[in-house]
Amino acid sequence: MASLTLTNVRPWDAAPVDVMITDGAISDVVAAGTADTSGETVDGRGLLALPGFVNAHAHVDKSWWGQPWVSYGGEATTQGRIAHERAERDKYGIPSVDGATAVLREFLRHGTTATRTHVDVDLGIGLRGIDNVRAAAAALDGAVEVEIVAFPQDGVVRRPGVLDLLDQAAAAGASNIGGIDPASIDRDPVAQLDGLFEIAERRGVGIDIHLHDGGELGAFQMELVIDRTRRAGLHGRVTIAHGFALGELPAQRQGELLDALGEVGISWTTVAPVPSAPLPWRDMCEAGMPLGLGTDGIRDLWSPYGDGDMLRTAQRFAQLHRLRADDDLTRAVGLASTAGGDFVHRTGHDLAPGARADIVLLDAENVPDALVRTPRRRLVMAGGRIVAGDGELVL
């Protein structure tokens, strides 16, 4: 069995330990200096150790990362961005294996070792984007574990044939199927949700719905999703992404929705965009709702921003929610790491025995210091293999 010992690291700024790794998983964690170091060892130099980051909401299929600069164009609305992307994507070779590989490599360089990524499925590209993302993950030999959401960016029922493509994607192994703004995109929320939940029930997959609509329109669609989740018995299998409306509602309305969302086990992902309203994140966690962070798109035809660094996303979340106390700053980092395990079907994603040996080392005094400075990743280990050092890939 392949074994390695990572010596003298500070997990979550606790006392120094040695981490023993066997066949890609953490086999034991002991006080620093007490592990058997007769085999292969890596000196952790007393650095801060965190679990590999988990990007719970990505779009790795449609980035122009590594290509010449693409100027922003089109209208700055959801419908406008969809139309612009459809008109321009072929010009930039989107989707492609090389493009997805470039994004996944950036993920690894910054310490992200698992992701749930939405991959566009539509009448123009069929399932080609999913094939490309799988090929990109294979090219990195599984260093980044990738869970796929077949995503109908251009709508579900307004484009005849998209539901069939989602069904095909689920049959071919996609872990989740997506939806998008059932009211404002398809203008028929019941039809969209009926179609998605029928596939999910029959194929045994999850549902991950983008919900941008704000205010009471967004709240109304949340109620529809809650009702369908309850009736379908998909407790713990449904995720709402963005869900901007939740942060915009009065406290009493928020509380009513949180009780219902928690009851049926609906999880939530956010990319913490700065102009959005803060989420009642503490209440969400207390209601038992899994909450994960993601980058959204990275240098794509929706936005030129992004670099794949989940620590920066956690920092933005902390700034948006005006977090200052050390405990809260540490919890924000936890949302980008341990909490993300729920979104990629991992249990116990942490620096503990039994977990996959995904470890990030940083030269930081403590976790809050790492969050506010986002220092270079001194070492990134994925499945027990060193894949990056001093901010550069060695894979």
From TrEMBL:
<dbReference type="InterPro" id="IPR052349">
    <property type="entry name" value="Metallo-hydrolase_Enzymes"/>
</dbReference>
<dbReference type="InterPro" id="IPR013108">
    <property type="entry name" value="Amidohydro_3"/>
</dbReference>
<dbReference type="Pfam" id="PF07969">
    <property type="entry name" value="Amidohydro_3"/>
</dbReference>
<feature type="domain" description="Amidohydrolase 3">
    <location>
        <begin position="145"/>
        <end position="388"/>
    </location>
</feature>
<dbReference type="InterPro" id="IPR011059">
    <property type="entry name" value="Metal-dep_hydrolase_composite"/>
</dbReference>
<protein>
    <submittedName>
        <fullName>Cytosine/adenosine deaminase</fullName>
    </submittedName>
</protein>
<dbReference type="InterPro" id="IPR032466">
    <property type="entry name" value="Metal_Hydrolase"/>
</dbReference>
<dbReference type="GO" id="GO:0016814">
    <property type="term" value="F:hydrolase activity, acting on carbon-nitrogen (but not peptide) bonds, in cyclic amidines"/>
</dbReference>
